[in-house]
Design brief:
The protein has 429 residues and is of the alpha/beta class. It is built from 14 helices and 17 strands. The protein has three domains: 169 residues, Molybdenum Cofactor Biosythetic Enzyme, Chain A, CATH 3.40.980.10; 79 residues, Alpha-Beta Plaits; 153 residues, Maf protein.
Length: 429
């Protein structure tokens, strides 16, 4: 196959990635950056720390792609084989780069340590290769041109890889003047992926321009739009605009965000805009809702905190749930969810309080309250409290994640002054 200069491929190197001990997050990040540069991603490949596998994979990809980025395998140990693989690929011996060696020594010196002799190997590169400076670690990257393809080798740790890409790789990626790449994303909540696909109908035809697809994750279905081609930009704008209008006509009531911003960040933004604050009372989610909120930078502007009331005793003691409600209705009930939310609202002084109580499983269910039963309460000042029952299927972590997503969606709808929460019905992942 002839090389396509507009094609890109990403290779993740490491035994730990192949067998699932570590999660590859680099490929997603790199794909987004390459797409921004007008490069179409043709493949993600994960290979073990085996010299033959690395060489054969890189050889195949540089023969068909204009840009290949490999991450991992640049450490100082015997299983870090990327340097040797590049040497075999370009038929050149490895030489010691004196500038890189000096920088590696300087890295250790700043930590008041002498460089171990083992780290000297990280200064090796093929004679035609260029080392990429690493300001956040000891592993330099590498840039080699193989038969016209640009091959960039970067370290695996994201804290090292990302700045090296931004400072070196991105500046060396060329974009075809005629080529246009445009993407859009619409996040939805409340409709299953199959129902969205049915509503979109022919919009999801694989030969359509722009291309429309869906992705489901954690209770959210994203409708993704992508254009890649050489049409005039005005024509591309018209195609993307028309596609957006058709998507909104089909599933618009379920769309809560244009773009990839997490639901928690959207909720925090709406609270900040309204000058309001939030607290939470959690049971089956075990702090997951609070963790999701505090993962967003700047959450402290609007998120006051909350209570982890896993036992009935803590529900009574911390947020004032009456013992008679617990005895009469059980912890997983509308009455208790409402009492948890109202108690948290009163004690925190917040404008809104979310509560979650449920049976995450795998045990604990009954005919009247099967595993996956979750009640979510929302109490707000000057607004009637709302409590909703969800029936969720899946493993324990799925039920808990869906509970967090559903709670945030309930609050998001209220913040948008949506009087009807009909989309948030009983849901199955």
């Amino acid at each position: 196959m002839a090389r396509n200069e507009d094609l890109g491929a990403i290779v993740s190197i490491g035994d730990e990635l192949v067998i699932g001990q570590s999660l590859d997050t680099n490929s997603r990040w790199l794909s987004e950056r390459l797409t921004d540069h007008g490069i179409t991603i043709s493949e993600h490949v994960t290979v073990p720390d085996e010299l033959g596998a690395i060489v054969s994979t890189l050889r195949r990809l540089v023969d068909r792609s204009g840009v290949v980025i490999a991450t991992g395998g640049l450490g100082p140990t015997a299983d870090d084989l990327t340097r040797e693989a590049i040497s075999v690929l370009v038929h050149e011996p490895l030489i010691e780069d004196q500038e890189s060696l000096s920088l590696i020594r300087g890295w250790f010196s700043r930590s008041n340590r002498a460089m171990p002799e083992q780290n000297r190997v990280q200064a090796l590169r093929p004679s035609s290769g260029i080392h990429i400076q690493n300001d956040n670690g000891t592993a330099p990257g590498m840039h080699v041109v193989v038969g016209g393809a640009n091959l960039f080798c970067l370290p695996g740790p994201p804290s090292e890889m990302k700045p090296m890409f931004e400072e070196y790789v991105g500046a060396r990626l060329t974009r075809s003047r005629e080529r246009v790449v445009r993407t859009a994303i619409f996040q939805t909540m409340g409709l299953g992926e199959s129902e969205i696909a049915q509503r979109l109908g022919s919009l999801m035809a694989r030969d359509r321009v722009p291309l429309v697809g869906t992705t489901a994750s954690g209770g959210i279905v994203s409708v993704r739009v992508r254009y890649e081609g050489i049409e005039p930009r005005e024509r591309v704008d018209a195609l993307m605009g028309e596609t957006e209008r058709e998507i909104r006509a089909a599933v618009g009531e379920a769309v809560f965000a244009d773009g990839p911003e997490p639901l928690a960040a959207i909720v925090i933004g709406r609270l900040r805009q309204n000058g309001q604050r939030l607290s939470v009372v959690e049971s089956c989610t075990g702090g997951m809702l609070g963790e999701t909120l505090t993962a967003i930078p700047g959450a402290s502007d609007v998120f006051l905190g909350g209570w982890l009331t896993y036992s009935n005793e803590m529900k009574e003691r911390l947020v004032g749930v009456p013992s008679e409600l617990l005895q009469r209705h059980g912890a997983v009930s509308r009455e208790v969810a409402e009492a948890m939310a109202c108690g948290g609202l009163t004690r925190s002084g917040a404008d809104h309080c979310l509560s979650v109580t449920g049976i995450a499983g795998p045990g604990g269910g009954s005919p009247g309250k099967p595993t996956g039963t979750v009640w979510i309460g929302l109490a707000s000042r000057s607004v009637t409290s709302d409590c909703r029952r969800f029936l969720m299927r899946g493993e324990r972590h799925v039920v808990r994640q869906w509970s967090v997503t559903s709670a945030l969606a309930m609050l998001d709808l209220r913040l948008r002054n949506r009087s009807s929460l009909g989309l948030l019905r009983q849901q199955d992942p």
